Amino acid sequence: MSEATQTVSDAAQPDLTPSRPVYDGKLGELYAIYLRHLLLMLLTLGWSRFWGRTRLRRYLWSHFSVLGDRFEYRGRGLELFVGFILVLLILGAWGGLVWLVWHFSIEGRGVQGFGLLDLFSLTVAFIGFPLAFVGQYAGLRYRLSRTRWRGIRGRLGGSAWGYGAIATLLNFANAMTGQLMTPLVSVNLARPRIANAALGTQRFEFAGRAGDVYGRYLGYYFLNILLWAVVIGLAAAALVAGGTRLGIDEAALATIFTKPGVTTVLVILLALFVVSTLFGLLILPLRCWWQAYLFRYLVARVRVGPVLFATALSTRHMWSFMVVNYLIVVMTLGLGWPWVMHRTLRLISEQLWIYGAPDGASIRQPPERGPKYGEGLLDMFDVSGV
Questions:
Q1: Any domain includes 73
Q2: Does 91 lie in the same domain as 159?
Q3: pTM attached to this predicted model
Q4: pLDDT tens for residues 264-288?
């Protein structure tokens, strides 16, 4: 092969040099920002949380880098505050509309015992679920639009309301089929969040298909059922054995369950709690195994131009992410949030691999600047804080 031909061949091959993100934040510095944030929230009765959240994001973004370049967060607390006020006004108008419907159409004509608060709660339950998904998508759009890398803004296209409608329908159908549609829900809700995202004019691509993960999920699903059967069988055997030792035969047990007293109800509730806790402990490793597999699959199906992604996230890593982070938040009564954020970014930087680099010469700033205000709905329906 001639030298010229070899040069052309090398130029045609994409550069897939592997690299990993770098997170160099310090937990002590993060806590200093967070504790100041809590103090100001106490002094302002919570109204300073929008500016505190912005300071936390600026610190986290600025200490996370890809290919040697750090991210920037350009959001402002005032934008979050205005977004929250706008949602408060919408909820106020919604409450007024509910009162008008109650006063002119239902009061005195409805079901006895069904009051205005019941009607308002019913409407919250009916539209709150889809609005939570709308808020998630709109919040992601805002954060991406305020994120820069190498000076280029991120963006998220698509409709938040369309995403909310699809997410609601898919989750409802999944509930009606006993969670058998989980792979379909996971992949089809990841698709718009990834495929509609872009760095400047460079769009992300997603090639995931639910069929690729269904086999693994069915194994996980039916193993769940098997574990339920084992736990219930053990609980029933323990109940009968305990009753026999106490001199209670099967007929007496049947009487206790058909005509339960207060003590019996408390014992049954305690038994249900023990059984559900035991099942939760048994199923957690299995659930972490499935979640780690799904995450590895989703990451591997994403590309940005010539850039590919991969992760070696294992069941142990997912256990640390799902279980340990949850315990940190619960055991510290919420004061462990900075630790959770710190651990999460460290996990991403350790387990995410990036192959190649974007073609900077072909990427331009997006024509639109994104939403003017941020995350009002997310603030109402999401409690993640950052």
A1: no
A2: yes
A3: 0.82
A4: 666 667 766 766 666 666 678 888 9
